[in-house]
Amino acid sequence: MTIRPNRPIETSLMSTYSRSGLAFVRGKGVWLFDKKGKMFLDLASGIAVNSLGHSHPKLVKVLADQGSKLWHTSNLYTVPNQEKLAQLLTKNTFADKVFFTNSGAESVECAIKIARRFFFSRGQSSRNRIISFDGSFHGRTMGTISAAGSKKLLEGFGPKLPGFDLVKKLSLDRVEKKISKRTCAILVEPILGEGGIVSLPCSFLKGLKKLCKKYKLLLIFDEVQSGIGRSGHFLSHESCKVTPDIVALAKGLGNGFPIGACLATEEVANSMVPGTHGSTYGGNPLGCAVAIETIKHILKPEFLSTIRRKGDFFKERLHGLLEMFPEQILDVRGRGLMLGLKCVSKNVHLIDMCRREKLLLVPGASNTVRILPPLTITYKEIKEAIIRLERALLEMRKFNE
Ligand SMILES: *Cc1c(COP(=O)(O)O)cnc(C)c1O
After folding, report:
1. How confident is the model at residue 277 (pLDDT cuts 50, 70, 90)?
2. What's domain 70-298's architecture?
3. Domain map (residue ranges) of the chain
4. Domain 24-56+302-400 is of which CATH architecture?
5. At CA 333, angle to CA 222 and CA 308, rounded to 5?
6. CA 231 to chain CA centroid, nearest Å
7. Confidence class of residue 10 from pLDDT cuts 50, 70 and 90?
8. What is the model's pTM?
9. pLDDT given at position 36
10. Substitution candidate for ligand 1 out of 100, 137, 223, 249 with most atoms within 8 A of CB
11. Which residues have CB under 6 Å of ligand 1?
């Protein structure tokens, strides 16, 4: 079944993505428009990025206002927006300190560096190994592909960076067996995103915390995808009442303006003294202005509880589709507005069929389709999404008959 819209034949871009020929020129809320004015319902939000939807009027305004004042000064000076955003983040999370980056991978890199530096500063520089999990995704830098450890990410890019011990199963026993005198931290996504929307049980996260306490390790959560309200909590681990030492953020933070952050407790962050880390663009005034406005909106308790309710509603409707199409859907996963469908036939078939219905989705590992709509999606729009999904599934059924 090859029903992908044709790709442009001539391109000067590297072929790192198998892009669709679809091109959008405008967006509003959960809707994207191509140049002919065709409207697509966006259940992808980039990939969990446009948390408040496209062209949110308030965000357009703060970006334009900041853009007319000042774009960049470097981190040699105080950046008032950075201070403000950091305060918002620390006041509303476990963290005491923040380092700003431009992407998720950079936030995870920063987390890795902090963990190692923390033990170095205590005279334990041989404690530098990090336990990570098979099926994870942490970004595309050498450090983060080495952390995730999968062949798919690493192939052709050797040598892999040392210092990561991969646990093959989400099992606390396996984790404990991997811990050695040289272990400094455990790195995990509380909800695996790229890996196919796998929400780790609170008992597992609590178990990891217990192991960290027992062996004096740091707990690093990669919340690049699951953070910033996506799960219905500002950071997804909050629902489990487990406190990490370091958290990596990006995606939803800037609503599409590239900005990431690495959060840490004071004790851990103290090892990052002048000269130990840096970023030319990190925390620039434009990104911070947008992020302040974005998270102010998301942090409202009623906004977060609405995400949980909408997520439950969406999930219930998806279960309805599973009952109608058991030959196509194996499982409904996730929480909040970070949802996934495990497919029977190739996930890209469903994604392609949905594109024909002008509904946008994202593929994930283990044959899942990810549903990551703007957090501002309405009940009406969720119902519309279900109608389009149902039409796509019916078409697939016809096709298979
Ligand atoms: C997307 C993602 C990253 C990488 O973010 P980039 O901005 O692409 O570097 C890291 N970790 C997780 C969990 C992600 O989903």
Report:
1. very high
2. 3-Layer(aba) Sandwich (3.40)
3. 24-56+302-400, 70-298
4. Alpha-Beta Complex (3.90)
5. 75
6. 10
7. confident
8. 0.96
9. 96
10. 137
11. 103-105, 108, 137-139, 189, 193-194, 222, 224-225, 250-251
